[in-house]
Amino acid sequence: MSKKDNGTSLILAYMNEKNRPYSSQDVFCNLQKQHGLGKTAVVKAMELLALEGKIKEKTYGKQKIYFADQSQFKDVNDADLKAMDSQISQLSAEMHSLNQSCRQLDSELKELSSSLTTEEVMSEIKALKAECSGYRSRVEKIKSATNHVTPEEKEKVYKEQNAYVKEWKKRKRLASDMMNAILEGYPKSKKQFLDEVGVETDEDCKVLVPST
Fold first, then answer.
1. Is the dihedral of CA 99, 104, 106, 109 positive or negative?
2. Between 20 and 30 A from 171 (CA), which of 35, 93, 156, 165?
3. What SS3 state is found at 148?
């Protein structure tokens, strides 16, 4: 684009290609980033093009709207309009299908991005193998130990435990009955009585009687 041209040929080609109404601000925003046109240059170029009759100008209040000269385009009959409508429908359906495909691919990409890489999987497998090896070593040590408890010894321990627990419950019940009998004629509370005689209960020591 030459300095003498000042963007008029570019703007004219753009207006004819798009063939839709634009303000000078619209054209500036659409072309500035790619072609580096200044706003003042765009305004002057569009006014010049309108003055020369190359584009048309309409004023709505304080705003000027520009559009391509429609006389340069051939007339479109009903058949052509229907063909265009059909093409638009077809392209819209294709666009919808492509959008769905893009969304599906985006979803798959996110899923793949969150998955472990091959190197990470190999590292994880290596760590798990080392962990399994440690467990195997522990199992072998347990199997090779000579101090296993026989079923008979285990049964004996359980029976002794049950006997001690039953005796514990029996003595606790006897002590409770004796204390209740004393408390019937005792003028103070149960807690005061226990404090005075220096008795600590299982509950004070936070001890629970095991179940048999």
1. negative
2. 156
3. coil
- The per-residue pLDDT for 10 is 93
Please tell me the pTM assigned to this model.
0.39
CATH of the domain spanning 3-72, picked from 3.90.180.10, 2.60.120.380, 1.10.10.10, 2.60.120.10 = 1.10.10.10
C-alpha R_g of the chain: 48
Q: Which H or E run includes 56?
A: strand 55-60
- Tokens at residue 73, please? 């385009």
pLDDT value at residue 57: 94
Q: How far apart are CA 108 and CA 102, in angstroms?
A: 10
By the 8 A CB rule, do 11 and 45 touch? yes
| CA 146 – CA 151 distance, rounded (Å) | 15
The list of the chain residues with pLDDT below 70 reads 1-6, 146, 212
Position of tokens 């435990």?
Answer: 161
